[in-house]
Amino acid sequence: MAATARSCWTTRRPSPARRTPGPTPTRCAASRSSTPSRPRSRLPVTPPSPAPTSSPSPPGTPSTSYVSVHINRIDHRSCWQYAMQVTSIINAQLGGPTWTVYLGRRDALTASQSDANAKPPRLATLVAMFGNKGLSPRDMTALSGAHTVGQARCATFRDRIYNDANINATFASLRQQTCPQAAGGASDAALAPIDAQTPEAFDNAYYTNLMGKRGLFHSDQELFNGGSQDVLVKKYSGNAGMFAADFAKAMMRMGAISPLTGAQGEVRLNCRKVN
């Protein structure tokens, strides 16, 4: 049965005198989202046009950054809020669920590259890390299902396909064809689909891949490796509706983690760096 979700967003209008946000009318639109196994119509997503007074992006700046810069200048949405709203919309276009996006969250002033590049931990550590943020093991396993779409760079999964034992040999050989063992050079940026079965559809094939030891990342395969999440992975693999519902709930819980509001954080003018 199709589920109905609400997508809410806020439009802020700057005051002519001080260019500070004025009244904040909120608009909500109900949308119907089917389970991932059902086809969906694909609707175009068109970002607001840049303001006439805005300067063009510097040479070499990705178009996504250009869009983010001007959207923030137009309606004062933070990069985080814009990314979450767009994620919900695109997710529905790919066949997945939508969810309510909490508004008003600001961007952080810091980021940790070392944390992002840290070696993937074992399952027990993953559970503890998510638990420290108020997310349950079920939330963690559901959120990991976002890897049912997208691509990854060779440098991020090289260790997995050459050194892990709990990997399907045929799958490892396939990925090794475009990701050589020697690090460095152009091969580091070579892309591979995270979900080789349905890389452009939001469905539950990710969990089927894990059951066949075809998880592209070490941390993904940890979810199905004789541990506490094996049973849930099997359930999601056989029940797309359960996965979609749990994913939407987990996204809302994640969106409520330690929000920066008021004078905390900032609204970035360029989503690639702090102001």
From TrEMBL:
Start-end of Low complexity biased regions: 10-44
Residues engaged in binding substrate: P121
Cofactor: Ca(2+); heme b
Entries under Gene3D superfamilies matching the protein: Peroxidase, domain 2
Signal peptide from the UniProt entry: none
EC category: oxidoreductase
Enzyme nomenclature, EC number: 1.11.1.7
Pfam families to which the protein is assigned, alphabetical: peroxidase
InterPro entries in UniProt: Haem_peroxidase (IPR002016), Haem_peroxidase_sf (IPR010255), Peroxidase_pln (IPR000823), Peroxidases_heam-ligand_BS (IPR019793)
Domain Plant heme peroxidase family profile: 78-275
Catalytic activity from the UniProt record: 2 a phenolic donor + H2O2 = 2 a phenolic radical donor + 2 H2O
UniProt record similarity statement: Belongs to the peroxidase family. Ascorbate peroxidase subfamily.
Name the record gives this protein: peroxidase
Taxonomy of the source species: Eukaryota, Viridiplantae, Streptophyta, Embryophyta, Tracheophyta
